[in-house]
């Protein structure tokens, strides 16, 4: 995993190399301090050379200054490298999310995905920056100092290195052991994010059902879980790192004891012992960094696995590749189409139906009958389990999904608006639309009057999920958006919410404007829509049980008649059933 993370640095070879070179120079300068200490003791003091004090001290100060200046530059460059990498990987991840099939989002919560994009990417990138800046520098510093020590006394170096195998064994064991704990901690954080996202989206439901105490309790439990999982890691750290420091620091006593013994016997100079004491700090400085570095690496590996798990997902198939016919008539045929969301009973079963160009097909049926699923199959958000759907005689699977969706206007039941201005929301359908075209679409959707009355007009921000607008207003804005796109195929999920008579009439008029001259599939809840449809398809548990015109089906006295008497008559239009 670490090599895969580090490979990302190859995207910025110049910057990564610069970072590496600065780390090498900066690290090499650590030898100046033990070097001049030895010179002070063995040359200046031992040979009584006061003339050398000033130049030696000057060299020392200059080297320390250069090291700190380089360190500051390194920090600056590394932060830029980290920002660039985080930005690039976030973009990749976001672009991947756009290419994943809708069914992937059925099983992955928004809060969890948000935590991967917002938290896991920077956590993973810390491995890259700290990997170069600190881990590499630490290894280099360790080797340079060991080289220096061996040069002056290999025997004393062996004594210094005595605690190392123990430290390496403990560190290796802990880094393996802690990965599982970090993963559990990260998953608990994601679960907390997912819950928070869910609660914020449903804040009105929480207030309406006065379940604030229960929601707070659930949130508290999730938050406790985060704390507990984090604590299991911290508990381990609290034992492991003091143990490592104890072993490492005991080494100093050992080194000074052996150094003093050999100096007394004239085998090494006192300057060498003192210089080893100074160098020891630089040798064990990398070891003291093992703790934060191993935390960064363990967390980074866990985060990287979660990020790569998304990046490695296969793209939605046929998104861009496939046929892109230049003209479209609008005939849609379902040939023995079945679809299962899971192993359970099919959501759509052996559906056969034909919509001729320009026809309006009304889908009616009890809740859960499979109406939205039919639209989801048309948009290819899901693929039929068996059978096929044809557009102008061409199977949908031969067409590019991007092209197909471009031919469609989809007015969903929730009439989703983004938290952006009305102009931006409408321009989703046609990015180059002029204000004149936008107003004309609003006019046809019977939305122009209320938008004109807003103090900020088209610049009014819709609020999260379009909260700033009423159900009827959002519906008309969604219709205006579809009108602006002017697509040859229209999928319309009529909202069931009861609108007042006047709004209902306005929405109906807008819908009629939208439906004219294009093939249209409507999930119909209004009597007026059903009556004007060319064909009504009645679905029951995924099966097409009746089809015909309103008069035919009503006269038949079957499921449709029962349904229309039970549901469609409750429409606020109060139209009589013939
Ligand atoms: N994403 C999904 N994952 C699993 N099952 C689903 C999913 N969406 C719908 N279903 C199931 O498929 C069946 C048909 O659902 P569908 O949404 O098509 O019904 P519908 O007729 O549009 O209902 P409604 O009028 O209530 O919107 C239902 O049993 C539903 O629970």
Descriptive terms for the model:
four-stranded antiparallel β-sheet; elongated; six-stranded mixed β-sheet; 10% strand; 578 residues; 3 domains; Rossmann fold; membrane; ABC transporter transmembrane region fold; ATP-binding; alpha/beta; 22 helices
The portion of residues forming beta strands comes to 5-15%
In the CATH hierarchy, what is the superfamily of the largest domain?
Answer: ABC transporter type 1, transmembrane domain
Name the structural class.
Answer: alpha/beta
> Which CATH class of the largest domain is shown?
Mainly Alpha
Q: What is the CATH topology of the largest domain?
A: ABC transporter transmembrane region fold
Give the terminus-to-terminus CA distance. 70 Å
Q: Into which percent range does the helicity of residues fall?
A: 55-70%
Q: What's the helix count?
A: 22
pLDDT < 50 stretches? 569-578
Total domain modules: 3
Q: Radius of gyration, rounded?
A: 35 Å
Give me the CATH architecture of the largest domain, please.
Answer: Up-down Bundle
List of distinct ligands in this structure: adenosine-5'-triphosphate
Instruction: Write down the overall mean pLDDT.
Output: 85
């Amino acid at each position: 995993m670490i090599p895969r993370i580090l490979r990302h640095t190859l995207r910025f070879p110049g910057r990564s190399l610069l970072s590496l070179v600065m780390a090498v120079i900066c690290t090499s300068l650590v030898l100046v301090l033990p070097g001049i200490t030895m010179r002070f003791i063995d040359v200046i003091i031992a040979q009584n050379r006061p003339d050398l004090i000033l130049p030696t001290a000057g060299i020392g100060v200059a080297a320390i200054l250069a090291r700190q200046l380089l360190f500051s530059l390194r920090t600056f460059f590394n932060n830029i490298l980290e920002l660039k990498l985080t930005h690039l990987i976030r973009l990749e991840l976001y672009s991947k999310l756009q290419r994943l099939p809708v069914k992937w989002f059925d099983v992955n919560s928004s809060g969890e995905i948000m935590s991967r994009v917002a938290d896991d990417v920077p956590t993973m990138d810390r491995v890259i920056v700290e990997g170069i800046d600190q881990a590499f520098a630490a290894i280099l510093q360790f080797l340079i100092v060991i080289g220096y020590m061996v040069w002056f006394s290999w025997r004393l170096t062996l004594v210094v290195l005595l605690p190392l195998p123990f430290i390496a064994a403990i560190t290796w064991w802990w880094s393996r052991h802690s990965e599982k704990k970090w993963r559990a901690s990260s998953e608990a954080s994601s679960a907390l994010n997912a819950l928070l996202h869910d609660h914020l989206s449903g804040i009105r439901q929480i207030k309406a059902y006065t379940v604030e105490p229960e929601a707070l309790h659930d949130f508290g439990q999730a938050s406790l879980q985060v704390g507990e999982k984090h604590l299991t890691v911290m508990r381990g750290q609290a034992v492991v790192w003091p143990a490592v420091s104890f072993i490492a620091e005991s080494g100093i006593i050992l080194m000074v004891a052996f150094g003093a013994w050999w100096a007394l016997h004239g085998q090494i100079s006192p300057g060498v012992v003192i210089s080893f004491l100074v160098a020891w700090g630089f040798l064990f400085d990398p070891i003291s960094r093992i703790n934060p570095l191993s935390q960064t690496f363990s967390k980074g590996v866990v985060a990287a696995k979660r990020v790569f798990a998304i990046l490695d997902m296969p793209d939605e198939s046929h998104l861009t590749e496939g046929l892109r016919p230049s003209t479209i008539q609008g005939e849609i045929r379902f040939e023995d189409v079945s679809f299962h969301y899971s192993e359970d009973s099919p959501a759509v079963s052996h559906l056969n139906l034909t919509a001729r160009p320009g026809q309006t097909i009304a889908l009616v049926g009890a809740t859960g009958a499979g109406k939205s699923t039919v639209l989801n199959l048309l948009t290819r958000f899901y693929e039929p389990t068996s059978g096929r759907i044809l557009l102008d005689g061409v199977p949908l699977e031969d067409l590019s999904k991007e092209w197909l969706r471009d031919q469609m206007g989809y007015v969903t039941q929730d009439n989703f608006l983004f938290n952006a201005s009305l102009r931006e929301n409408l321009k989703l359908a046609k990015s180059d639309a002029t204000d004149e075209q936008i107003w004309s679409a609003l006019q046809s959707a019977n939305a122009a009057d209320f938008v004109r009355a807003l103090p900020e007009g088209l610049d009014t921000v819709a609020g999260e999920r379009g909260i700033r607008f009423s159900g009827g207003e959002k519906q008309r804005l969604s219709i205006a958006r579809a009108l602006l796109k002017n697509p040859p195929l229209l999928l319309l999920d009529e909202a069931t919410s009861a609108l007042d008579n006047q709004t209902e009439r306005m929405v109906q008029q807008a819908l009629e404007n939208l439906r004219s001259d294009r093939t249209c599939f409507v999930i119909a809840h209004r009597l007026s829509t059903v009556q004007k449809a060319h064909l009504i398809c009645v679905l029951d548990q995924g099966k097409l049980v009746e089809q015909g015109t309103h008069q035919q089906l009503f006269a038949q006295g079957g499921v449709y008649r029962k349904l229309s008497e039970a549901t469609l008559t409750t429409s606020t239009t109060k139209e009589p059933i013939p």
